[in-house]
Amino acid sequence: MMVRNASNILVATTYTDVSGKYSFSNLPLGTYSIYPESMGLNSTAWGSITINPLITSVNGIDFKQTSTAIKPNTSGIASVASSQSFTIFPNPSNGEFTIQWDNSIPGNAIVDVTNITGQHVYNTALNLDASGRKELNLSQLEPGIYFINITSGNNRYYQKLMIQK
What we know:
Blueprint: E1 2-5, E2 10-13, E3 30-35, E4 42-43, E5 46-51, E6 63-65, E7 69-72, E8 86-89, E9 96-101, E10 108-115, E11 120-127, E12 133-137, E13 144-152, E14 155-163
Parallel strand pairs: 4-7
Antiparallel strand pairs: 1-2, 1-3, 3-5, 6-7, 8-9, 9-12, 10-11, 10-13, 13-14
């Protein structure tokens, strides 16, 4: 496994253990992409992982290997926090969807949406008020799989969103 920074410079490498687990430690603050590597296989990076003073670790970045390739395992996305306090519905959607949160979570959240190649396609701030929900309209995006990254305080949540038209 390799980590490259936003300038595509290699900053760390590691090996997976027998169960496929891996970790990187002591990465400086910044935005990174994780690249799996195996001889003879095509690989796709997991892009746009940001380490900042509030988000110091990210878990659940998994890859799936076939006989010809290694790709991000989009069904294996896990939250950094111990419980999922945000949900997205409907999913799949036409690009119009609702983010629902536990209305006991006060404060603000940042919603960052990336496509399957790690490109940022949408970013907004949310006020986590007592309503517990916010409608978003991303119908201008092409059909495909997108990753919704929600940062609230010290917690970061990931949800996969499929847009179908």
